[in-house]
Amino acid sequence: MIDRSLDLLIDEVALGLADAADVARLNALAASDPAIAVRLEQARLRLIALDDTADPMPLPADFWSRIEARLDAEDAAASPPNAPQTAPQTAPQTAPQPSNVVDLTTIRATATRWRLTALAGIAATLALAVMLAFVALSRPEPAVIAVLLNDAGEAIALVEGLADNTTRITLLERQSVATDQVMQVWTKPDAEGPPVSLGLLAQNRGSALAVEGLPPPGPDQLYEITFEQAGGSPTGLPTGPIHGKGLAKEPL
To answer: How many structural domains is the chain composed of?
Structure first.
């Protein structure tokens, strides 16, 4: 497992580029540190647009064989030119060689494995850099931000309302939801009007929801999350207990 900064590890896990050991290590950290859990969920939410729009691009079937062939060619080029050729002879039996005699074939195979590992790491790092650059350039800034609080005054979710009426929701704590229930997000574009559903949180996780026909979000706009029956509220209005609510503010 390669040591790396926590920010890079979180992004690699969110993008699916980390190995199983790193994923397990980060999940253990997130389980014991709520701040890390928040950062991981925010990374997944930040990268969801990239995950939804990018088409899978598997490596060519001969990718690694071409790399190995190139390494073989480099090794051959590095060998001494015009090395004397001798006819094969039957060697007399000799005593076993000392254990400190190194097999050149083993050295070459080990060097090749190290090169392949390094190339794989470089490729993953470049892919991560390109993906993060794409997300950073394409991610719009929120028009309003709301922190939703539960009855105990604890922050349970972060809501970002965009001018195009896309709403990003980041859950800030793990929540156990009954199998016959779902978390539904609401807002009140008009302080005097009824709540409007923004959608359901798939798998009861943070998500990006989009609703057409609403006015752009503004300051002091109410947002809330309720627990509703599977499929959402049957009345079009909140019916279940409130998980958290809060008023939006314009970011500085």
So the answer is: 2
